[in-house]
Amino acid sequence: MSDSVKFLLDEEHLPTHWYNINADLPEPMAPVLHPGTKEPVTPDDLAPIFPRAVIEQEMSTEREVEIPQPVRDVYRQWRPAPMFRARRLEQALQTPARIYYKYEGVSPAGSHKPNTAIAQAFYNKAEGVKRITTETGAGQWGSSLALAGTFFGLEIVVFMVRVSFDGKPYRRAYMETLGAQCIASPSDQTESGRAILAGHPDSTGSLGIAISEAVEMAVQRDDTRYALGSVLNHVLLHQTVTGLESLEQLAMADDYPDLVIGCTGGGSNFAGLAFPFLREKWQRGLDTEFIAVEPSACPTLTKGAFAYDYGDTAHLTPLVKMYTLGSGFVPPGFHAGGLRYHGMAPQISHLAKQGHLAPRSYNQLECFAAGIQFAKAEGILPAPEANHAVKATIHEAGKCRESGESKAILFNLCGHGHFDMQAYIDYNAGKLEDLVYDDAEVAMALAGLPSGC
Amino acid sequence: MSDSVKFLLDEEHLPTHWYNINADLPEPMAPVLHPGTKEPVTPDDLAPIFPRAVIEQEMSTEREVEIPQPVRDVYRQWRPAPMFRARRLEQALQTPARIYYKYEGVSPAGSHKPNTAIAQAFYNKAEGVKRITTETGAGQWGSSLALAGTFFGLEIVVFMVRVSFDGKPYRRAYMETLGAQCIASPSDQTESGRAILAGHPDSTGSLGIAISEAVEMAVQRDDTRYALGSVLNHVLLHQTVTGLESLEQLAMADDYPDLVIGCTGGGSNFAGLAFPFLREKWQRGLDTEFIAVEPSACPTLTKGAFAYDYGDTAHLTPLVKMYTLGSGFVPPGFHAGGLRYHGMAPQISHLAKQGHLAPRSYNQLECFAAGIQFAKAEGILPAPEANHAVKATIHEAGKCRESGESKAILFNLCGHGHFDMQAYIDYNAGKLEDLVYDDAEVAMALAGLPSGC
């Protein structure tokens, strides 16, 4: 048995700055528009929603953004996160490929999400905010913000998509144990929620609805702001610690990836790993490939339109240009809640549109099979979301076996699956099936995209 | 906010040897007896149960036992494990105490148990064993052996106490996903199981019964051996990596503990942390104190008898001299399954009897409250077992606040609580109550202790 190898950085290698890809984009991005006027938003427009520092980061083109010391002090609890060479998986696959994975499941919440939750909580606290509202689907993000709330003494209110609120009691218990308030969405606490419940009293909710509720509650009180766990520029910025660390860890391994792979829901874990490697590619003229993996049942990058759309169902958020399946699209109930979002990060969308990354989709059964194969080789059971990146990695490693090429593959193992055992139970019992999006429903949702922008 | 500090060792500081406390015991331990003859067991007596290398370790008085390279190669995936100074907890408690915790939840199974599971799997594999049987209560141990099975290509059969098999489907799913076979105990697959079922068709099982079943199945086939997750000398030996690492990490912190604290079920996580510090105490004439914390509902060290007893219900195991509540004692159903065992490691029992460590018990409500206080300060939600060590630590830190003394306290945070969220749900909902052992039942069980040895 040739064993898997860990590459661990000393604490002094914890990044001091995040990397802002806006400084290096070959073409500028389309502006964010005000939902009412459809004119470019100003910082003042966003002030009721986000703290000033976050708004500045959202709009910044500064290449290096300093990570505040108190944020680094918390990061240090689990960062630098380990990177592994998956030698046992390579052997199981009999591939000449060199497989590396960055493991973000070592955070106390079990995923990459605290990288931005800690930062957002810090900026809110620094500006006197007392309470943060947010939404959560599978619960990874809500758990991470709950955690950040304990570190910075903030009240956290989480609108949890009803189907997860009922079906994932353990995630909810984790948040509540850390002192966060969890509300099933749609709820009767907001106009957006009441409007949905009036038409659909049994609504199981969606991320789009939960975002509407959280934003609505945030703007009602001066001491409250809203936090988003993916999609926006500042969130992707905070996640770049993973890619920056991985660059150094690959140098320790005396290697460099030919392929960089991540799963994409809103896009933040993929961006966090990929963006620092994109900068290297552009600066050094490399030919690294980037694969963004999404579920076939929510194929935003592979089947969506590149258009202006809202981030939420009630259309309270600004309009962003992105790949979207339409803000009215409700994906089928597959077991990777973190990937069930109608849109995609504008930065990822922009880069995909320009051909800088290759989107790809897989269905859930093959992803679970890949995740279990990984677990049996490497001992870590991935979250269902991360299984998508594992599947693409195994697929590419299989191509290397056929061609005899020894490519280096790096993927983001963005979280463990300890809170997702029901999904594995269902998979093991043969109860899961492949789900595909409904062409007609997507066409209808896309037909409803906002016009005039 | 003064942040918590992590002490992380480089990989070259991964211990090369385990520490065997048998070499340094001030008085020799009582011999292990054959259950039939009641004469001291020989290695041959144990050969149908354990591989030779493990039997040698069980009986060894060699001070340093080399950790085989393949075991170190697997350890390296998560070891050296971090030690933290809990500055945020110190602040929350307003204590002058310096609180350190060794965190074993970073292993892929989420607890300290893989430290011995990996070693035992290696030794079995090296001697040609194809299949290992074991028992599990809460599931931490079964999960760890399942993990070790994937690393070394061994078939793993886990007899899971019926009440956990039914009530902890996520733990079971974790083991099954890694390829282990889980059987609810008592089962119809063994004589011991059938005997119990004949009398009690609805039996919810116990660790003692599950051990009987696993041992019985192991001795039936030449290619099968049995593995135990705590209690025995070799298990405690393998756990000493935690204490050996902690010694080096405290040197990094330029500190040394006045108090060393761990929870005790079978005793292995406590021993792993404490034994290397006991050696230091004896060698250097220090006055370090050692606190072994157990649940009030299963008060082996604080209320049991120091006597020869069986490790299992069907009396298939050898007789060991230990603190015991009687092998017929079934503890009430509190939420720390790993601490529900009638006996205690003979080494721990011996040291407690001689006054080298101070046993203490707490009830479950105060332990959950302490665990949640810890989670809110440090961000890590402990397993219910570990909450007992947290409670004692907070208690001692409170005494420092009152006295003004700045003691250094080190405790073993032996696992995270991600698989134990139902316990937290019940606690948060006010559904848990303090349970105490039944004096009369214990007296009856103790009256049934084996005689003539």
From TrEMBL, chains A, B:
- Reaction(s) the record says it catalyses: (1S,2R)-1-C-(indol-3-yl)glycerol 3-phosphate + L-serine = D-glyceraldehyde 3-phosphate + L-tryptophan + H2O
Q: In which pathway does it act?
A: Amino-acid biosynthesis; L-tryptophan biosynthesis; L-tryptophan from chorismate: step 5/5
Q: Per UniProt, which keywords does this protein have?
A: Amino-acid biosynthesis, Aromatic amino acid biosynthesis, Lyase, Pyridoxal phosphate, Tryptophan biosynthesis
UniProt-listed Pfam families: PALP (PF00291)
At the top of the EC hierarchy, this enzyme's class is lyase
- N6-(pyridoxal phosphate)lysine, modified sites: K113
What are the residue boundaries of the Tryptophan synthase beta chain-like PALP domain, all occurrences included? 77-415
Protein's UniProt keywords contain Lyase: yes
The cofactor(s) it depends on are: pyridoxal 5'-phosphate
Q: Does the keyword Transit peptide apply?
A: no
Q: Known EC number(s)?
A: 4.2.1.20
Q: Which family does it belong to?
A: Belongs to the TrpB family.
Assembly information from the UniProt record: Tetramer of two alpha and two beta chains.
Q: What exactly does this protein do?
A: The beta subunit is responsible for the synthesis of L-tryptophan from indole and L-serine.
Protein name, UniProt field:
Tryptophan synthase beta chain
